[in-house]
Design the sequence.
């Protein structure tokens, strides 16, 4: 299939990166090779050293356009997300590429100022920031954009649907099957759910509390595509590259050692995993493998119901129109700093879905207290999933994103849950936008600015 370019333009904060990320994920699910050229990343690498004069801005846009044209010529879909303020140079890229869709993310200055947590628009309006496009520097609106989405008035889903409609009408990609970008949709994209073996267990293994928690989370569905303890290929690739054998970026290494009692299951056998709490799980064995230190491990799939409980949560979120809300995974009680992150998310999305992944009742109580104190009522929705571990600062952000993405989230907040460690700036930077699958609105830690206000930085995948 011939390639094409989707060129997002619009003011800072108008939703270009958000829509580019979601569009990339959707097109990737349809088998399209997608590359996202983010404006900030292009300036940091391709256009390092350029300033913000008109000449430098045009040079930056031409460089992005040239790379996009090469990608399209090679059969890929290049999605650009840069302000690209001047009409003439945008039209120049259209002529050079041919198969080109210009998407104008329209949003009023007033709406942008209201959703700007750091107050940059207000500072620019006061003349405190030079070369701020749309305020102290010009922005020329497109006169012949292929798609115009009013991100201040339209939902994210409506914006995405409008863009996809034009792409499909042009014949650049076939219409999608009835697969939502939710847990059910991600499951279909990543592969079939494990089948249930009917054989009786041949052995019993006692498991600790941490393993029980992982079994419960897998059976619930929140750790998809993880279906059980890892096999040798997955464990090896994960240790070397941070990815499963399928290529999916994954943060959690889970292996299960066999006891030294001579148990030697073969593929197709069933093992009973017995927890100290009295709960049991059945493991369909796929392989037994030997680790680098001679330890014998068993891999397989935890037996689950045909429809994991995750789908019930996703269905409730869909029925209450919360899939467009900002999502946050909560494993610790809310603090003042964390409440500031939630306030930022509410400013951006207007609604908040809090996913409780802890057995500590104080965590849910803090979320309910936040809802009451802010007077949010139906604007804040709370759901419970099984308790989840907290990983180190480099891997925990990806765990949060994976869980929330499985629940159907389009946008999320990443908390700095690793003890004593702030979220590193590059925690998700190794992911392509199509892999990330959602927009990270904000990430901890929260910083206190000179005027005493609390804020945070935006993390990009």
Sequence:
């Amino acid at each position: 299939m011939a390639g094409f370019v989707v060129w997002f333009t619009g003011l800072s904060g108008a939703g270009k990166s958000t829509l580019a990320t979601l569009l990339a994920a959707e097109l990737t699910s349809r088998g399209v090779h997608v590359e996202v050229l983010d404006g900030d990343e292009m300036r940091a690498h391709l256009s390092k050293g350029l300033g913000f004069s008109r000449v430098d801005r045009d040079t930056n846009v031409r460089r992005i356009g040239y790379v996009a044209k090469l990608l399209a010529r090679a059969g890929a879909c290049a999605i650009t997300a840069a302000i690209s303020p001047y009409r003439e140079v945008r039209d120049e890229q259209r002529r050079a590429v041919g198969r080109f869709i210009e998407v104008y993310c329209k949003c009023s200055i007033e709406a942008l100022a209201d959703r700007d947590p750091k107050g940059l628009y207000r500072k620019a309006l006061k003349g405190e920031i030079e070369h701020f496009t749309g305020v102290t520097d010009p922005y020329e609106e497109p006169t012949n954009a292929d798609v115009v989405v009013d991100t201040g008035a339209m939902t994210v889903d409506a914006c995405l649907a409008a863009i996809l409609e034009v792409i499909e009408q042009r014949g650049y990609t076939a219409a999608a099957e009835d697969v939502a970008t939710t847990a059910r949709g991600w499951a279909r994209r990543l592969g079939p759910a494990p089948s249930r073996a009917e054989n009786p267990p041949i052995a019993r293994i006692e498991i600790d509390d941490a393993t029980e928690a992982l079994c419960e989370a897998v059976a619930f569905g929140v750790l998809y595509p993880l279906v059980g303890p890892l096999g040798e290929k997955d464990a090896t690739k994960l240790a070397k590259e941070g990815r499963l054998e399928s290529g999916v970026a994954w943060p959690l290494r889970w292996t299960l050692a066999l006891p030294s009692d001579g148990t030697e299951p073969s593929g197709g056998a069933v093992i009973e995993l017995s927890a100290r709490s009295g709960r049991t799980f059945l493991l369909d064995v796929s392989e037994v493998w030997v680790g680098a230190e001679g330890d014998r491990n068993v891999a397989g799939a935890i037996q689950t119901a045909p429809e994991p409980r995750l789908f019930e949560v996703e269905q409730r979120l869909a029925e209450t129109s919360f899939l467009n809300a900002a999502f946050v995974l909560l494993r610790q009680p809310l603090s003042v700093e964390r409440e500031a992150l939630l306030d930022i998310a509410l400013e951006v999305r207007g609604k908040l879905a809090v996913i409780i992944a802890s057995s500590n009742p104080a965590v849910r109580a803090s979320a309910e207290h936040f809802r009451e104190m802010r007077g949010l009522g139906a604007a804040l929705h709370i759901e419970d999933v099984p308790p989840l571990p907290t990983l180190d600062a480099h891997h925990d952000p990806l765990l949060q994103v994976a869980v929330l993405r499985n629940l159907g989230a389009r946008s999320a907040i990443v908390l700095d849950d690793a003890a004593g460690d702030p979220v590193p700036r590059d925690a998700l930077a190794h992911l392509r936008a199509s892999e990330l699958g959602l927009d990270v609105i904000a990430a901890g830690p929260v910083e206190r600015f000179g005027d005493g206000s609390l804020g945070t930085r935006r993390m990009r995948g």
